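User: Thanks for the earlier help. One more: alcohol dehydrogenase. Can you show the sequence and predicted structure together?

Assistant: Of course, both are below.
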Amino acid sequence: MKALQYREIGSRPEVVEVPDPEVGPGQVLLKVTAAGVCHSDEFVMSLPADQYIYGLPLTLGHEGAGIVEAVGDGVTGVKPGDAVAVYGPWGCGRCLMCAQGKENYCLNAVAEHIQPPGLGAPGSMAEYMIVDSERHLVPLDGLDPVQNVSLTDAGLTPYHAIKNSLPKLGAGTTAVVIGTGGLGHVGIQILRAISGATVVALDVNEEKLSLAREVGAQHAMLSNPDAVDAVRELTGGRGANAVFDFVGVQPTVDLAGAMAGSEGDVTIVGIGGGALPVGFGRIAYDVAVRTPYWGSRSELIEVLDLARAGSVKVEIETYSLDEAPKAYERLHEGRIRGRAVIVPNA
């Protein structure tokens, strides 16, 4: 079968022929219908050799959906022909966090060398993929896999981040979204759907801000130091009740810290390497700073429910598997509007 692989440190991904996977006990074989392209892949492929821990060659794709092709011994929860989405942050299934469905925070994953698909295990950018357990599959129940595959990360990650701040986002509050791309434009929709907050979007150019307005942001402005005073003015000097930074570079993290009002939240979702100094006088009083990772299985079900209700829709560009390297080039150049989706078996 064909697969998109990262094969050499510092190289670009390439489409290659690899052996068809064989399903083992407890596993599920999927015929992949859609796979999402993510900035996390870019991050992984930018790591130097001394920091790279994901193995080579690596079949990319941690956002996946497919049709069950075959099941291994002991699998009873899904059957061939089922249309499913893949819950990506795999865990041990036994620890306290996994028992709550929070496999994104599995206590044993590192020690047991459990890695997500596309981030260590073979991912979804292939004609077929192996899912290690049926518990990592969620029924699509009529959702279009191509339109919605990105919700397994680009929807789940902002949903998890926003849910933590919901007690602070009632009527009359303000939430700031920094970065309105793949995750941010979904985050704006989630905020509009489940909170009472006024949503302020920040990004680096008018094209990106236009998308933010299209998906529901009430205010949109350039992401620069002037935005701090603008947010303060919008909030009567109080500052934002919650700031969600989907970029995470130092300039955006600095903005997030400066915009948050007393008892507000700063949630750094992006993996740009920025850090926020926390200490008396460094940020507003009683600000909580979080760095969440992905989300729980139950939250993925909730995100897909939002999509079924029409509350969340991902802006997508589609590519064949042979065109996947081009999708990553466009991602690297910042030319993807919303999210790129690979359709391996088109």
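User: Great, one quick takeaway?

Assistant: The chain has two domains: 2-153+295-343, 156-290.
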